[in-house]
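User: quick one, fold this
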Amino acid sequence: MTPSDRRAVDDVHRLRLAAQAADTPHLPPPCPADLEGSLAVPPPATAIEEWAAYSADRTCVASVRLEFPLEENDNAVTAAVFLVHPAFRRRGVGTRAAEFVRDRATAHGRSRILLAADAGPGDRSAPPAQRCFAQALGARPLATFPHLRLLVDAAPRTEPVPEPLRLRFWGSTVPEDLVAQAARLEATLSADAPTGRLEWAPQPSAVARIRDFERMRIARGRRAYQCGIIDARSGRMAAWTALSMTRANPDNALQAVTVVDPAYRGRRLGLLVKQHNLAACRAAERGLAQVDTWNSAENAHMLRINAAFGFTHAGTRSMWELAVHPPSDAGRPDVALDR
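Assistant:
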């Protein structure tokens, strides 16, 4: 599926809206610009395949997005989207789609298939129906990521940063004089973040990764608000954070990266940089009401920081690993997947 496939793009967007309303009404609805941009520009060092499944009467019944890492973690494929239209569930469509994902993983020489499932605040793991489906497919649970939400009116007020530190703000593109430091900090964050059973290798320090991510974000119509804390003595970036927003959801922001240089930790800089960045974002985005973020359940440090900032539990994202070879053969319903 490509951006020029207008019918397929529209069909998939409508399917994702229906699935969001049925499964995850606590999350912001999918953004059409985000979908179109994701077809045009992949994540850094990643190949993508976007598939739509149609029934015999050409009704779109499932949406599958596969992401194939090209450098580190190149033994895996992530089904970043794996959705069956609510009106077509319990008809074997999901089983057929899982078989198709296994076929694509095998074709790319991948030995691991990762799936994600979101649950609302009333369930601390995947919903029972999703758990049963994953288990029937032979998937095993790997990790959980608590979904945290901040109501911005409950956010703490900004506090001054200590001398000789300075604040610096920018938008969707990291300034050229800071991008190498941003790459260094992002690699530090990737290496330090606990992965548990995910067994996910950290990304390298690379300016190209930062720039490729920015191109992807801009292609998706997203806008970012970013803040760094700079040591005036050395010019070193001690902390960095980012918020991102889609075109379709002016009331919601995603809390993305927050990282503090190891040499500056223990000074509350993570809290301070988030305070000032949120204040700048709120000043520009008058409709902003809430901020969402996800942290590994094993990342106790970041969970404490976000709790102190005012984030509260809003749901859970579960990661599963699907067996490349199914536990048993299953029937194939009459559906076809179109790329």
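User: anything notable?
Assistant: The radius of gyration is 21 Å.
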